[in-house]
Amino acid sequence: MNRRTALTALFAGASAPLLAACSSGITSLDGDGSGGDTGSSSGGLTIGTANFTENQILGYLYAGVLKAAGIKTTVKPNLGSREIIVPALKGGDIDLLPEYQGSLLLYLDKNAKDTEAGAMQNALAAVLPASLEVLPYAIAEDRDSFAVTRETAEKYGLKTLADLTKANGKLVFGAAAEMQKRVVGVVGLKDVYGVEFKEFKALDSSGPLVKGALKKGDVDVANVFTTDVDVAANKWVVLEDPKSLVPAQHIVPLIAARKADGKVRKALARLGNVLTTSELTELNRLVDQDKKDPDRVADAWLKKNGLVSA
């Protein structure tokens, strides 16, 4: 499904309900997650996901634990980038989406300086509109990273992002289109490290386009996720980030506050306490390399870990 088709399906007949509630500012997974219960999930939840494998898997994991808690769910996968799905959540066309702390914070506040998970959770609660809420963040984390082939690393002496300045004006950067305007992207690489690229190629987020381009040499630097198993498989060099351009990126549920009742909070907190970074990486491998369906991969993992009935 392409982005246009996905959006047409998403917004067709949308009721755009009014939203009213406030964010609780939960900062950890401690406790049962039932504080600040002002919403109701009785009418069910619609979960939206971004247009890359991991986010789709997370959407189905969310759906599985919520269904096990007796909540009706619908998953609308592959809707597009954050610039598309967060406004859809604000508008009431979806109710819940899997997010990443640091990237979400910088999307909401481009001048945000926090990089530690707890501090970012508080910062998110402060900048989100009253209609939205972040629930406790998960153990699992997936950061953006910038990778080069071993040959490119050796040619230019690249170990860190700062080293990219040695090749200013010579390298082609490949990433999703929105990375051209993001702090964790072209903007931050220039402002924080002084990096300037020969060209930017709009491809995808740690997907087949950007990874294929890196393999072929069509791009020299690629934006890939730290849970992407192809990084190790291809022996790519992930450049170190000594100035902490990329903040912590724990998985965090972003939800319409009107839907954030006790059952939802407990179900998602339980998932977050169990899902680790290594297990999320393995789920990505099953879909990307073994070509399994993300909904089935999510369901099998939930059953294996006792989060839904076998």
Automatic annotation (TrEMBL):
Keywords: Signal. GO terms for cellular component: ATP-binding cassette (ABC) transporter complex. Pfam families: OpuAC. InterPro entries: ABC_Gly_betaine_transp_sub-bd. GO terms for molecular function: transmembrane transporter activity. Residues 1-20 form the signal peptide. SUPFAM superfamilies: Periplasmic binding protein-like II. Residues 45-304 form the ABC-type glycine betaine transport system substrate-binding domain. This is ABC transporter substrate-binding protein. The lineage of its organism: Bacteria, Bacillati, Actinomycetota, Actinomycetes, Kitasatosporales.
